[in-house]
Amino acid sequence: MLYTIWTGAENAIRLANPRNLAGKVVIDTTNPLDFSEGIPPKLAVGHTDSAGEHIQRWLPDSHVVKAFNIVGSPHMFKPEFPGGPPDMFICGNDDQAKATVTDLLKAFGWSVIDIGDIECARYLEPLAMVWIRHFFRINSVDHAFKLLRK
Q1: From residue 86, how far is each of 31, 108, 126, 130 by CA, in Å?
Q2: 149 in a domain, yes or no?
Q3: HEC letters along 12-48
Q4: Most buried residue among 25, 50, 113, 149 by CB atoms closer than 10 A?
Q5: Residue 146 falls within a domain, yes or no?
Q6: Is 51 among the domain residues?
Q7: Are 77 and 109 in contact (CB under 8 A)?
Q8: What's the CA gap between 111 and 128, in Å, rounded?
Q9: Whole-model pTM?
Q10: Amino acid 47: pLDDT
Q11: Which residues form the domain of 111?
Q12: In a domain, 32, yes or no
């Protein structure tokens, strides 16, 4: 699992040596946050690229799956919210890797929605900004997303 601040992600990958992660599933939890103008942060990457895509390029022989980027760390395992488990949106290029991450997420208590390939991180990272901006307004990590279906 890659769980770093955005500005340290590339260096962390370099230190881990991408060859050591070849063929492995890497869960990308990062959001490309820019704190240069203070709090709340802004996205440093977006619209035509994403942190998820950067990470996949930095780990070309790994199977990167974006997950856990839309919730605070206290709720990553066994999230308990009124109305049942929240939804975790994921994306990545390898179907088997996404199946592995889906199994892990379900074991952790999540409902999972696969939104497509790693380019879809372009949508998950701005969605995380909704979560982040709400956090700064209420000063609480006690919120998550649920896609309502009919």
Answers
A1: 19, 11, 18, 15
A2: no
A3: HHHHHCHHHHCCCEEEECCCCEECCCCCCCEECCCCC
A4: 50
A5: no
A6: yes
A7: yes
A8: 17
A9: 0.94
A10: 86
A11: 6-138
A12: yes
In this predicted structure, what is the pLDDT of residue 91?
98
* pLDDT one-digit tens code per residue, 46-55: 889 999 999 9
Residues in the chain: 150
| Number of neighbours of residue 122 by Cβ within 10 angstroms | 19
Please give the pLDDT value at position 94.
98
Please give the pLDDT value at position 100: 98
Question: What pLDDT, on the 0 to 100 scale, is given for residue 6?
Answer: 93
Residues linked to residue 2 through DSSP beta bridges, in sequence order:
28
**Cα angle at 144 between 141 and 36, to 5 degrees?**
55
Displacement of CA 52 from its chain's centroid (Å) = 8
Q: What is the pLDDT of residue 46?
A: 84
Q: Nearest-CA neighbor of 89 among 109, 78, 73, 105?
A: 105
Residues of the chain with pLDDT under 70: none
Number of domains in the chain: 1
pLDDT confidence of residue 1: 87
What tokens were used for 19?
Answer: 């060859």
Q: Which amino acid is at 54?
A: H
pLDDT of residue 30: 95
CATH number of the domain at 117, please. 3.40.50.720
